[in-house]
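Researcher: Next sequence.
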Amino acid sequence: MIDELVANNRAFAASLPTQHHDVRPSRRLAIVTCMDSRVNVFAALGLGVGEAHVLRNAGGVITDDVIRSLAVSQRRLGTREVMLIHHSDCGMQKLTDDGFRAELQQATGVAPAFAIESFTDLDADVRQSILRVRRSSFLAHRDAVRGFIYDVDSHLLREIDVDDEDG
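Model: Next structure:
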């Protein structure tokens, strides 16, 4: 499979002119979202190359590593806004922290040191993520943080307000 993707890259590169984009995103935006392959962030938001930083992990969780990346993004590369995007039908809703931790420990003989961060309530998890970003002293810009849920079927975003418990 990887050889096929490398060949795809050669064809892709040959179809485009050589160009250089600034390392600083032109929209001064960082997006945190899930690694789910159904979420095509650039297409869904109408973004082009060089316009935003996109950080992805299982569930779009705000972990210490995401805070580290956001700190670099803001303090060194000029981003000012943070957009959080969770999505419907997320795999992180289909497991439990204890169950997956036990599965990993059984398979490897070692309990993982990292948090699993599964969730059942999408809206609540988005609210928690917004608060984690807003409360991080490592981030210079915590006022322009907004959270959304992307519907993988309709492709529409629904905003989640941290102050509105009904969404």
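Model: The mean pLDDT is 95. The longest strand covers residues 81-87.
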